[in-house]
Amino acid sequence: MNRNQSRRHFLRSAGALIALPALESLGFRRFTSAADTVTTRPKRAVFLNFGWGVTNETWFPDLKQTGADYALPQGLAPLARHKADFTVVQGLSNKFANEAHWGSTFWLTGANRYAEPGQSFHNSISVDQVIAAQLGRETRFASLQLNSPDVSNSGHGPGLSLAWDLRGKPVAGLENPVIAFHRLFSADTTSLAERQALLAQKRSVLDAVTTDAGDLQRGLNKTDNDKLDEYFQSIRDIETRLGKDEQWLNVPKPKAALAEPKPGLAGRDEIQVMYDLMVAALQTDSTRVITYRQPVGTLLTSLGIKVAPHDMSHYTPGDRMDASQKRDAVQSELLAGFLDKLKATKEPDGTSLFDHTVLTYGSNIRTIHYLDNCPTLIAGGAAGLKLGQHVVAPKNTPLCNLWLTIINGFGIKSDRHGDSTGVVKEILA
Amino acid sequence: MKCIQTLAVLLLGGLISVAEIGAAETPPARLDEKQREFFKSYCVECHNAEKQEGKLRLDDIAFEIGSIELADRWQKILNQLNAGEMPPEDAKQPERGAKTEFLDALSHTLVTARQSLGDVRGKITMRRLNRREYKNTIRDLLGVDLRVNELPADGGAGTFDTVGSSLFMSSDQFEQYLALGRQAIDESFARFAPSQPARRMHVEAEERNARIAKALEQRVADRDRYVKWTTAVDEAAKKPENVELTALIRDEKKGNATHLYFQWQRLKGAPSPKDFGFVDAVNADEMGRRDWVHYVPHHKAYLAQPGAKTGSYLTFDDVFVNPYQPFRVPGDWPPGDYIVRVRIAATENAPPARRFVEFGSQHDSGVRAVISSHQITGTMAQPQVLEIPLKFSPQKGHGFFFQEKGSFGTDVAANRLFAEAKQLNGIGPEFALWLDWIEVESAAAAKLPVASATPPQRMRLEGEEASARIARTMADRAKIYERYLTWTAAVDAVAQRPENAALAAKLRSEKPANPADFYLAWQKLPGAPSPVDYGFQDAAQADVQGRYVWTNNGPYFRYYLEQPGAKSGAYLTIGDTAFNPSHSFQLPGDWLAGDYVVRVRMAATENTPATRHFVEFGSLHDPLARGVASKILSTHQITGTPDKPQLLEIPLKFFPAEGRGFFLREKGTQDSEEVGQRLVAEAKKRNGIGPEVALWIDWIEVANASAVDAIPTTIKQRREVELHANAMVGGTYNGYFKGGYEAAKEFLATGQPQKGIPDEQEAKFRVKVFQEHGPTFTRYLDDPLTKTGAYLTIFNVHPEEVITLPPDQPSGWLKTKHEIEKAPSGDYVLRFRIGTVKGTPKERHFVTLGSRMKPEEKEDFTLMQTFQISGTTDEPQVIEVPVSIIADGPRTFVLREKRDVKLDHEIYTAARKETGVGPVSALWIDWVEWEGPLSSNSPRGIEPVLFANTTGLSERDHARAILERFAVRAFRDQTPKPEYVDKLVKLFETRQQAGDKFDIAIREPLSVVLASPRFLYLQETGGLADAKKAATNVSPSPAPPVSPSANVSLSSTELATRLSYFLWSAPPDETLLALARSGDLQRPDMLAAQVDRMLSHEKSREFVQGFVPQWLSMERLDFFQFNTQLFRDFDESMKAAARREVYETVAFLLRENGSARDLLKSDYVVVNGLLANFYGLDGVSGDEFRKVPLPADSPRGGLLGMSAIMAMGSNGEVSSPVERGAWVLRKLLHDPPPPAPPNVPQLTRLEGKLLTTRERIMAHQEQPQCASCHRKIDPIGFGLENFNAVGKWRTEDRYEKKGVGKKEWPIDPSGSLHKGPSFKTYFELRDIIALKPDQFSRGLTEALIEYAFGRPYGFADEALATTVVQRASQKDFALREFIHAIVQSQAFQTK
After folding, report:
1. How far apart are CA A301 and CA A307, in angstroms?
2. Model confidence over B1023-1055: pLDDT tens digits?
3. Is A172–B126 a contact, with Cβ atoms under 8 angstroms apart?
4. Is it the case that residue B914 has pLDDT exceeding 90?
C-alpha cells in the first residue's frame, strides 16, 4: 500500500472520530506556522511514591532556611543541578493517617479510614484520578498506573496502585516495565477485522457474566447489592475501556522511542526504565496522568544492601541508617535523571516536556513510623507553581491542600479534595 | 473489660434472643466522668467559649462519643497529648500519674468508639472467594493446582481474609479471573479430558506364515499327484507294448527324464495329467517338479526357522515365501498423523549389508513405492521396535509393506541373488530380517475430535503388596514355630526329670535320624504336655506346621525379604506357592472385553544366569485355582536391571469368558511339578536356602486403549549426579583455576600475555586464587565418593544439586538426555538418594529442597521443604517428594545443605583460614530421579462422562449440556438461568465459527463460568431469591433490595457451602452436597457429625493454615530478616519449621480434640527433628511433626515457648519486650492495648548511653503518654526476656555499640502485672497466664467468629461468644467444641 495514501486515510478516519493528539509523536512535522498559535501543549501530572519514608536527619532541609536560598541536604544532594526547578515543601500531612506501614494508601486521597459507618476500611478518590477525569479524555489511556512486583516489601500499604477511583476502590496497576511497554507501544499485529471480532467476543463474555450477575442480584439485600455493584462496576470499567479501544482501533499505537525493556529488571534498573517509559508515554501523548508506586525492597537488593526494607525503616545509627541514607541518595539520583529527560524532551512548540508537567515525589510516611511532615518534592511547570524553593507550610496544613493546588493549577474547578482546607498559597507562583 | 461489662448488662436483662441483639443499637463509647476534672483543668482552661486558643473550643465537647466527627475530634486531642504538644510548655502541667490515667481512659474509649462506630451490627456481606479459597475451589473443581500469585493479596486492611467487606473487585482482577480460569480449563483438558479411543491396529507377522505353510502343503500335494501321475506313466511305459516306444522317446532327449512325461500321449494306456488334477503335461511339470525343486527347500527351511512360530522372515523376490510383508490400514480411518511400529530383528548371521528394511506404500492398483529405509540393530534375542511416522491419507491408498532393502531392486537382480544363493546352499538366500509384529496408531489423539465411547479403565498393582503378604506369612509361621519350640521345650523339661531320663533316652535312640521325631512320642512320657495345649491339633500336625514348614522355608523367607527390592516390589520365586512363584492378578469384574495393554515394570537380578531372564505371561483358566497356570500367552526376555528396570508392554485381548486371572512367572519353572521341585532341591543342595531370585516386578498396570491414550505413560528418569558434578567441578578447576594458574606462571616467566591473562595484575590474582581455592577443588575431586555421587558443599565447588524435568537441564557442562522433550502437566514424584558424611555434626544433617523458575539463575530459590537426613554415605536413604507440575510452573528443583547462603563466603573463608580448605561437606547425594506423571487421585476435572455424546446430540446441544452441568458444579449446586447458558452457548458457537474444534471452542465459555459472579461470590439468600423470582415473575429490572435487618435462614446448600469454606476453605464435597439435597444436613446431630468428619479430613489443614496465622498475627514473623550472623541456625528452613510448629500444634489439638489450655502451657511439644534439635530435645529425628513429651523444667510447651512466637517479638536482632508484652495482652489475655500512637517524640537523652534493655524501656515509662499503655505491656515482655530474638533460652544479654562501649547483664525476668500478681521467673509468669483460659478462649472465639462469618467481630456477637466459651469450658476447652458451638448456633445458620 502506498504510504502517503494510508497516512491520508488515517487522517480522515481518525480525525473524524477524535481530536488529533500530539502529531509530533506520530512522526509528523507541524503543518503550518499557524498551528503554533493555536496549539497549547497538553498538561501532564506525575505522582511518584516510594513507600517507606526517608532519613529524617539527612533528607529534610533546615527548617530555618526557607525560600530560594537554602542548603540542599545530603539526601537531596544528587538533585543539585535541578535546584532551581523543584520545591521542597515541609509541614504537610494527612491528618487521618494512622497506619505506620501504609506509605501510599491514603497519600493521594487524604481519606479517613474510619469514615464509613459499619466499615473498618474506607478510601476516597485520589488526586490523579480527579485530574484524569479531565485530561484523560483525549488520550488512549485516561491514566497510567505503574507498580512494582515488590510492593508488599516496600511499605506502601493496601491498594493496587497509588490510584483510587471515584468510589474509593483500588485501581490496578501494571506490574513491570515489560508489561507497561507492551501496553503502551506494542503494535497490534492482528488485522482490524480480527481485533473487531476480539472486541465483540469480549463484549459477549461481559454480556454472559452480566446475565448471571443480574440473575443473582434478585434476592440480595442492600449490603450485598453494594458488594455486587463492585462487580458490575468492574464490568462497566471494562466496557468503558473497550469503548475507548474501539475509538482508537484504527489509530496505530505510537512507535516507542526506546527498545523493549529486558525482562526481570528489579530495583534501581527497574525504576530507571519505568522513568524512561513514563517519558515516552508522555512524549507520545499516550496518557497525561501517571502514578508510580516504586519498589524499595528490590532497590536495596539492587544496591547490594543486605538490610531488609522494614528493618531499614526502623533505622538506628549503623548499618540500617547507612542503608536508609544510601537509599535516599539513589532515589534522588534516579529522580534527577528523570528530570533531565523531561527537560531534554522537546515539545513541537520548542518548549520541553518538563514545562508542561507537574511532578510530585513523596510518601505518606516521614521516617520510621512518623506520619506527619510527609516528605514532599514538586517539580515541573504545568500548574504554575513556584519552583526553586524550600517552603515550610504552616503547622497542620493538610497534604490535600497541595493536591487541591495542583488540581486548580490544571484549570479544574474544585474547592475541595479529601480534607483540604484551601490551597498552599506559599507555592503559588 | 468493656465487653464483659456490656455482657453483664445483657445477661441481667435476661431473655434477649440473639436476633434481637443483632438489631439493637450498639452501646456508645463513653469517656469516664472521672476524667472530667483533668480535662477541665488542663484543656478547657484555654480552649473555652471565651478564650478559644488556636480557635478550638473544648468546653462543649461531649464525653459520649457517638459520631465519627466526635471521634475524630477526640482523636486529635489524643494525638496532641501523645505528641507532647499539649498542654504547652508555658502552661500548667498535669501530674504524671493523672495524665497517664487520662490517656489510658481516652485511648481505650476511642478504641471502643471506633469499634462501635464501625460495627456492622451482625451483617454478613456477600463475599468474593479470597485468594486461598479461589485456588482450592479451582483445585476441587478441575483437579488443577493454579499459581494464583498474580491475584492481589486479601485482608490487608487489618481484617481476616474472609471478611467480605474488605474483598474488593476491579476490572483488572476480573480479567485475571478470566485468564486464570482459562489456564485452569486448559490444564484440566491436558490432564484429564478423554480423547477419542485411539485408532490402533496390530498385526502379528506370523499370520503370514500360515499362508506359506499352506502353500507348502499345496506343493506337497501337487508333488504327490505329480509323483502318482509320473509313476503311472512310468508303469505304462514299462508295459510290453510300450517298451520300444519308450526307448525311442528317451533317446529323443537324452538326460532329460521328464521328456517322457511330456510325451505321455504317445504311450498307450498312459493316464492323462488331467486325471491327476493338472491342466496338461506342461502344467504338471511346473507344479509337480519345477516348483518343487525351486521352492520347496526354501519353504521348508523357512518354516523350520526358530522365529517362524512367533514372527515372519523377509525373503527375496519370490511370491510364495514372503518376499515382503504387506499390511492394510482399515478403510474407515481418517487422514492424519499416525505412527507405524514394527518389532523387528536381524538374524545372527545376516551380513551388515543386509540389515536394512524398507517401508513403503502399495496402492490398490499394485503400484509399490518405498517411503523410507531403516537400519536394523535389533537382534533375535533383543528385537527392536522401529517407529515410523506416517502421514496417512486414504486417497493415497490403505496398503503398506516392509521388505528387505535390495530384495526388489529389479526382478533380474533379485532372481540372480536367489539363484546364486541356491546354487551355493540348495535353498536360497539366508534369512536376514525377522518381524514380530506391525502396529499402526494415531499419533496425537488430542488432535482428534472429542467423543468417547468406552470410559478409560486402568488398574495398577504394586509388587510390594505381594512382598508384604509374604512378610505377613513369614511372621505368622515364625509365631507357629515359636509355639512349637515352647511345646518341645516343655516336653524336654519333662524328659529331663530324673524319673523320665531313662525312658527319654530310649525313645530318642529309637529315631536317631530325626531328633524331632522324639516329640511325636510325647504321650509315652508321663507328665509331658499335649501339643493341643499349644494350639496344635496333634503332634504330627505340630511337627509339620511348627517345625518342618519353618525349617524348610524359613531361610528362604528370610532370604526373600532381605533382597533389596522386596520393599519396593516383588520377586518371582520357584517352588512353593506361598512364595510368589507365579505373580497373578485379576481384572475387575466390570471390565468389558476388548484390547488392553499390560505394562510390567520389571528387572532381572544381577548375578543370575542370563538363561533365567525370561518371563512367561499367561492366563489362569480357573480364576479360583491359585497359581495354577493353564495357558502361556507369551514369553519375554527381561533386559532391565535393578538400576534400570524395563517397561514390558504386553498387548492383551481380553475375553471375560476365558477368565479374568493372569499371571507372570519365570520361564520354564512350572512346566511340570517335578521341574519346580527339582530346581528347588538343586538350589538347596548348592546354597542351603533355595533358588536365587532372578526376576523382580515393580508394578503391573493394565489399561484399555482409551486409558492408555488419555493418561500419558509414566516416565522415570534417574540421573547419576557425579557425571554432571565432576564435569563441572573438574572443568572449573582445570580450566579457570589450574589453567589460569599455569598461564599466569607463564606470563610471569615470559612477560608474554597469555589467554585470559592480559597483565601482571591478573596474573598475580590468578596465582593467588589458585593457591587459595585449588586445594578445596582437588580435595573434592580426589574423594572416592565423588566417583559414585556428589557432595553438597558450602560456597563454591558444588553447592547444590538439581532435579530437572524436561525441558529444563542441569546448568553447566553436560546435557542430560531426557526421554521426552517436555514433561506434561501432572503429579510427579522426585526422589534422591542421600547420606550424611561421617564425623560431621548432626545439626548439618538437613537438606533443603527448593524450586527454581529459571534454571540458570542461582539466586532463584523458593524453599519447599527441609529434610532431616538419617542415612549415611554407607547406607544412604531415599527421599521421595510429590510435586505437581503445571504448564508455566517450575521444573527445576534444587537441593542444598540447609543454611543461610548469605553467610557462605564467611564460613568458607573462616574454614580456609584454619585448615587451608573449605568446610567439609556434610551431605552426599548418590543419584536423583523424577517419575511421572502419576495417575492422580484428585478429582477427574471435567467429568469425562460430560464428553460422551452417546445419545447423538447435535454439537450445539452437546455443548449446552456440558456447559450447564459444569456451571451447576462450579456454582456449588445452584442452577443458572437458561439465558445465561444461552449466552455461553453463543460464545461456543462464535469460537466454532472462528474455526475452533469442539474441544477448543468449548473452553472459552467454560472459563467464563469461572469468572461469573455465582462462582466468584459466596452468596446467601436463603432460597429467598427463588421465592422473589416467583413473585415478581419476569421482572426486567432488578428486584428492590431486601431489608438488611431481616434475618433469613440459610438454605441447606448455602449452609453446606458456609461450613465447607469455614473448615476447608474449599467448596462442599459430594457428601455435604448430598446431605444438603436431602435436607439432613440441618439436623444438629448430622451437622455435628459432619463437622467431625471435616475436621478429621486432610483438607482441614486449610483451616489451620488460613485461620491460625491471622488469628495470632503471625505476619510479623516475615516483617524482619533474621540476622543469621547472630543466629546461624535460624535460617529460612528453621523459620519455616518454627512457623509450622504453631500450625502443627493447633492441627494436633484439632485432631485429638485437645484442650485450648494446652496452647497456654503443656507438658509436650509438637515438633520435628529440626526443631527438637533447635530446642535441645534429644531422641527426636525425622521430618514429621509429632507429640514429644517435655522434661519438667522445660520452658517449652504452649505458645509462649514456641520459637516462632518469640521471634515475632523481636526485630530480627534483639528481642522486643514491648512487642511480646502487647502480643500476650492481645492474643492470650484478651486485653488488647490501644494501637501505638504515631508521632510520639523520640527520647534523645538516652542516645549514647549504655543501658540494659529494661533500663531503656523503663525510661520510656517516665512519659505519661507512654506509661498509660506500657505499664501493662512491659512487665510481661520482661518476663519473656529469657528468650532471645529467635526464641532460644538465655540467661544473659548484652548490648554493644560502636563508640559507646558494651555491656553485659544477667536477665532479670521478674515483675508484676499491672494491678495484678507478681512473678519471679518466666515459669511463674507462664503459670499466671495459664490460669486464665477463659480470657484466652474469649479471644480465640472472637477470632473464630470473624473468620467463620466473614465479618468483623461486633457487639451483636457478644452473646454468641459467651455461649461458645461456656460450652467449651464445660468440655475443658476442647478445641473442637468451639467450632461445634459456632456451627450449631443460630447465627451460623442464618444471614
Report:
1. 8
2. 654 444 444 444 444 444 444 445 788 999 999
3. no
4. yes
480434640: which residue's cell? B1153
Distance CA B766, CA B756 (A): 10
Report the residue from A114, A201, A231 with minimal CB separation from B68: A114
- Closest residue by Cα to residue A19 from A38, A45, A4: A38
Query: How remote is the C-alpha of A46 from its chain's centroid?
Result: 5
What would you measure as the largest C-alpha separation in chain A, in angstroms? Answer: 68
Cis peptide before B1036 (omega within 30 of 0): no
| Cell triple for A395 | 503547622
B100, three cell numbers: 497517664
Closest CA to B1090 of B1066, B1069, B1065: B1069
CA atoms of B560 and B575, how far apart (whole Å):
13
User: Which cell goes with B886?
Assistant: 503445571
CB atoms within 10 A of CB B857: 12
Roughly what angle, to the nearest 10 degrees, separates helices B1084-1096 and B1132-1152? Answer: 150
Secondary structure element (H or E) that encloses residue B310, with its range: none
Q: Which of chain A's residues have a Cβ under 8 Å away from the Cβ of B166? A: 120-121
The two most distant CA atoms of chain B are separated, in Å, by: 170
> Which of A113, A164, A223, A232 best probes binding to B when mutated, by most B CB atoms within 10 angstroms?
A223
Tell which phi-psi region holds residue B1101, choosing left (phi > 0), alpha (psi between -120 and 50) or beta: alpha
Q: Report CB contact under 8 Å: A222, B178.
A: no
The neighbouring-strand residues paired with A378 are: A87, A360
Count contacts between A and B (CB, < 8 Å): 204
Phi, psi angle pair for B1331, to nearest 5°? -80, 5
Q: Tell me: the pLDDT tens digits for A340-393?
A: 999 999 888 888 999 999 999 999 999 887 898 999 999 999 888 999 999 999
CB A339 within 8 A of CB A80: no
pLDDT at residue B197 tops 80: no
- CA separation (Å) from A88 to A373, B997, B1068? 11, 63, 58
Please list every residue in chain B whose beta carbon sits closer than 8 Å to the beta carbon of residue A216. 1013-1014, 1017, 1019, 1025
CA distance A369 to B539: 90
Could you say which of B125, B1005, B1046 has the minimum Cβ distance to residue A227? Answer: B125
The three-state secondary structure class of A2 is coil
3-state secondary structure of A417: coil
What is the residue type of A347?
A: E
Output the DSSP codes for B443-510: S-GGGSPP--SSPP-EEEEEHHHHHHHHHHHHHHHHHHHHHHHHHHHHHHHHHHSHHHHHHHHHHHHH
Determine the Cα angle at B880 with ends B874 and B885, to 5°: 145
Residue among A160, A220, A228 whose CB faces B1042 most closely? A220
Looking at chain B, which residue has its C-alpha nearest residue A168? B168
Which is higher by pLDDT, A324 or B338? A324
Helix orientation angle between B1100-1111 and B131-142, rounded to the nearest 10 degrees: 170
- Burial letters A199-218, b for 16+ CB under 10 A, else e: eeebebbbbbbbbbbbbbbb
Whether residue B1241 is preceded by a cis peptide bond, meaning omega within 30 degrees of 0, is: no
User: Would you tell me the crossing angle of helices B463-496 and B498-510 to the nearest 10 degrees?
Assistant: 120
Q: Dig out the grid coordinates for B752 from the structure.
A: 608474554
Buried-state track B360-380, b at ≥16 Cβ within 10 A, e below 16: bbbeeeeebeeeeebebebeb
Are residues A403 and A96 in contact, defined by beta-carbon separation less than 8 angstroms?
no
Q: Which three cell numbers stand for residue B640?
A: 532391565
Please give the Cα distance from A288 to A410 (Å, whole number).
12
Strands in A276-408 per DSSP E: 289-293, 357-362, 376-379, 390-398
